[in-house]
């Protein structure tokens, strides 16, 4: 997604070769129009998959899951990192390690909102180590739902996440794939051109 790549080049800050700060437009202060375009891009990519639910993890994936769910006309669910007193029903749970926070969380989704009848699209802001997305995959597996794919807004392709996810056989679509980065420069992987035969 060229518009997203351009915005990352313009407003993203690579703190080093592993940490990208995009809090001015993606995950603290949020560009609402860009977020809705991101949701439309995911919806277009997965339009033939008969998605019934979009799943993410709190908190930075919520607005992208909302935008995607709105574009597809389906609900979105977010896995909660802390159990609220109102969350009294049976839960799907798993542990997820956060690369950004350096912590491990137990995340949960109510069994009321995800079942074997669902066709689930997972959406998150970053694909780096893949741990959060593998955790969400485990939630889908526990529910018996069918996972149609994973959408990542930004992928750090130089980290191991894509490989771990591809090993599970899941379809992955990232809107901006970073090949390498430094405080001076961010390099994107260009999507291979589709050649008609």
From TrEMBL:
Matching SUPFAM superfamilies: PRTase-like (SSF53271)
Amino acids binding xanthine: 20, 27, 156
Positions annotated to bind 5-phospho-alpha-D-ribose 1-diphosphate: 128-132
Annotated Phosphoribosyltransferase domain residues: 36-157
CDD domains for this protein: PRTases_typeI
Record keywords, A-Z: Cytoplasm, Glycosyltransferase, Purine salvage, Transferase
Localization annotation: Cytoplasm
One GO CC term on file: cytoplasm
Matches recorded under Pfam families: Pribosyltran
Pathway assignment: Purine metabolism; XMP biosynthesis via salvage pathway; XMP from xanthine: step 1/1
Catalysed reactions, semicolon-separated: XMP + diphosphate = xanthine + 5-phospho-alpha-D-ribose 1-diphosphate
EC number: 2.4.2.22
One annotated GO molecular function: xanthine phosphoribosyltransferase activity
GO terms under biological process: purine ribonucleoside salvage; xanthine metabolic process; XMP salvage
NCBIfam families assigned: PRK09219.1, XPRTase
Subunit structure: Homodimer.
Function recorded in the entry: Converts the preformed base xanthine, a product of nucleic acid breakdown, to xanthosine 5'-monophosphate (XMP), so it can be reused for RNA or DNA synthesis.
Sequence similarity: Belongs to the purine/pyrimidine phosphoribosyltransferase family. Xpt subfamily.
Protein name according to UniProt: Xanthine phosphoribosyltransferase
Gene: xpt
